Every structure is written in structure tokens, then in C-alpha cells.
């Protein structure tokens, strides 16, 4: 603390020493005292406070009433640029086949962990499931795939990771600036120090890995202690995930996906390659040669896809409404299939 107290005095001495002793020192205009000199160089070189884009962001956020300009300057002065996060983001993505993705994300260990988690929190999970209409095993599966039931929630301060991505990763700068905006509002609304929030390198928080915009919209204080604690309260976590899925169209009692038999014609393979959306009805798919292997109504909307079960071997499926609801959580067919695999392993059902 003493060190901090003396630092400004030392800085003044340094400024005095750096100036020519013959010239009187001009008073520093108020604006320059508050706003550090801004540079167009990247934040990796300037740090946040000296970066022109950051200063623009500060003025904009202050104008929106998110925080006072002084508070924002202080926030960025304390925020630490994390070059390793940018390195992680720049790693080339690998698209793994289902048989690898499944063993990594929905194997026996994950399913057994899910059974234990369900056992431990059964009462509240069942209560949330009844209330929101989303099966408990789906809530368990999402927490399992996201953070291995809360054991791997990330260790980055969001106050470092989000500014790093917002201003040091131009490819998605706009997205992360928006999330940073949401994050600052969230810290204010929750009455918490922004530097107290911990999450993944990409700004996802807590057991369900909500990004700030999702937290603000969908997180729920289910245990009623006045805080939406998605880091430590399983009731809050369960209700937050259920709330998210319900809001994204989950229908009580509906299936996730149904296996089909089909001959992979060029027409059907082209359909599989389309962007994930419920773009056909089951009836339309039947007329194209797709035969569901379980009962499903013709009017239901569906997306046709396949999973590679061994090199060059595929199982074909239609994803239904609830497939698409889980896909909203993470835009990956493999992810949704893994959630369903864990859920079926935990719940013994056929989702
Ligand atoms: Ca709570």
C-alpha cells in the first residue's frame, strides 16, 4: 500500500527531471490528465490504456452510461493483455469425426460422472426439469460436456480475456467488444468487481459456460439468495441451462434425434451439407427416400445429418426441434449428438 501511495509523487519527480529546468511547467489540461495518449499500434504493443481503439470504446461506453469514463479508464489500466489467449484463438481448428469426438466428450467416464452428479443433486434437478420441461439428464449432460460437472470452469479473469479478445483479436473484435459491453453491464448489475469474474480464455463463465450476454439474458437465481451464481450453485446452474433451452425452443417431451435409413444419393448428401436448420418436414424427407427408424410425425420439422462411426462409415439421423434447441447452445452437430449420448446414458431414455 505504501508503494502505491508514493508512486504518484515519484512520477511527478520524474516529469520534473525530464523537463528543461529553465522553462516553467505548463499546467496539464484536464482532459490530458484523464485520457492517456492514444496510439494506433496494436494493444499487444501499447497495452490497453494507450490504444486508440480502446479509448474510442471508453468514450462510447461512457456515452452509453455503462460506467463513468474515469471508472473505465481505471478498468483498462488494471486489465492485463493476455497474448497466450490470442495464440489459442489463432490455432487452426480441427474438425474431428464423430467416433473421436464421442470418445473425448461422451465416453463412459463422462456418463458415469453424470450419473453421480444426477444422484447428488437429483431433487433440484428433477424440480427444475418439471418446471421448465427440459429433462434433468439434458441439464446434467450440458454441464458435463461444458465443464466436466464444474471441475474445469477456466481460470482467466474475464476482465483480462474479454479486453484481449475485443482489441487484440480483430477477426472477432466486434463480437468480443459487444461481449465486453455486456460484461461491464453485468458486473454493474450484479454489484461485483469486474475483476472477480473467472471463466474460460474465450469469456465463458461457470459450470454452464455462459458468455456475458447469455448470462444477462438467461441466467436464473433459482435458490433465491439474490445472486445468479452459475459458478457454485447447482440450482442456479440447472435453472439457467433449462431457461436457455426453453427460450431457444425446447419442447417438453420431444426427442432430439431419430436414426433413419437412406441411400446417400447426391441430392441427400447435398442436403446434409446445408447449414444446420430445420429446413424440411419429416414428410418431405420421407418423399426424398429417408425412412425414420422410430415413430415420428410427418409434420415435424427436421434437419438431416450423419455421424461418422468409423473411418468412412456413417449413421444417418434426422435432428428434430429439440436437436435445434441444443444446437443454439453450441453450433455443432457433434456437440448436440454428444449431449444426447450423455443424457441417454444418464437418464436411460431415448432422446
Ligand atoms: Ca442464487
From TrEMBL:
It holds the Pfam family SLT_2. SUPFAM superfamilies: Lysozyme-like. The keyword Lipoprotein does not apply. It comes from Eikenella exigua. The active site is at residue 146. Keywords: Signal. Residues 50-343 form the Transglycosylase SLT domain. This is Lytic murein transglycosylase B. Residues 1-17 form the signal peptide. GO terms for biological process: peptidoglycan catabolic process. InterPro entries: Lysozyme-like_dom_sf, Lytic_transglycosylase_MltB, MltB-like, SLT_2. One of its GO terms (molecular function) is peptidoglycan lytic transglycosylase activity.
Amino acid at each position: 500500500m505504501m508503494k502505491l501511495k508514493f508512486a504518484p509523487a515519484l512520477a511527478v519527480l520524474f516529469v520534473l527531471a525530464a523537463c528543461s529546468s529553465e522553462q516553467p511547467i505548463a499546467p496539464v489540461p484536464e482532459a490530458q490528465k484523464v485520457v492517456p495518449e492514444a496510439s494506433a499500434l496494436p494493444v499487444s504493443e501499447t497495452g490497453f490504456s494507450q490504444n486508440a481503439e480502446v479509448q474510442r470504446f471508453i468514450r462510447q461506453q461512457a456515452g452509453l452510461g455503462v460506467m463513468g469514463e474515469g471508472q473505465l479508464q481505471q478498468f483498462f489500466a488494471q486489465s492485463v493483455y493476455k497474448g497466450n489467449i490470442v495464440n489459442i484463438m489463432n490455432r487452426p481448428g480441427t474438425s474431428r469425426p464423430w467416433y473421436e469426438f464421442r470418445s473425448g466428450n461422451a465416453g463412459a467416464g463422462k456418463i458415469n460422472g453424470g450419473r453421480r452428479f444426477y444422484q447428488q443433486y437429483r431433487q433440484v434437478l428433477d424440480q427444475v426439469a418439471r418446471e421448465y420441461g427440459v429433462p434433468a439428464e439434458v441439464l446434467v449432460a450440458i454441464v458435463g460436456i461444458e465443464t466436466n460437472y464444474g471441475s474445469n470452469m477456466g481460470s482467466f479473469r474475464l476482465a483480462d480475456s474479454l479486453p484481449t479478445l475485443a482489441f487484440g483479436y480483430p477477426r472477432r473484435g466486434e463480437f468480443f467488444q459487444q461481449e465486453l459491453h455486456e460484461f461491464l453491464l453485468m458486473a454493474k448489475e450484479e454489484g461485483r468487481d469486474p475483476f472477480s469474474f473467472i471463466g474460460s480464455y474465450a469469456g465463458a463463465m461457470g459450470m454452464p459456460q455462459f458468455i456475458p450476454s447469455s448470462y444477462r439474458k438467461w441466467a436464473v437465481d433459482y435458490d433465491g439468495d439474490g445472486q445468479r451464481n452459475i459458478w457454485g450453485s447447482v440450482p442456479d446452474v440447472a435453472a439457467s441451462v433449462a431457461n436457455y433451452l426453453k427460450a431457444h425452443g425446447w419442447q417438453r417431451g420431444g426427442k432430439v434425434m431419430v436414426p433413419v435409413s437412406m441411400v446417400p444419393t447426391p441430392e441427400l448428401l447435398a442436403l446434409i451439407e446445408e447449414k444446420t436448420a430445420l429446413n424440411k418436414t419429416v414428410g418431405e424427407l420421407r418423399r426424398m427416400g429417408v425412412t425414420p427408424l422410430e415413430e415420428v410425425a410427418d409434420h415435424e420439422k427436421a434437419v438431416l445429418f450423419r455421424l461418422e462411426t468409423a473411418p468412412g462409415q456413417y449413421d444417418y439421423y434426422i435432428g428434430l426441434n429439440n436437436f435445434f434447441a441444443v444446437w443454439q447452445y453450441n453450433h455443432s452437430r457433434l456437440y448436440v449428438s454428444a449431449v444426447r449420448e450423455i443424457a441417454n446414458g444418464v437418464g436411460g431414455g431415448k432422446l
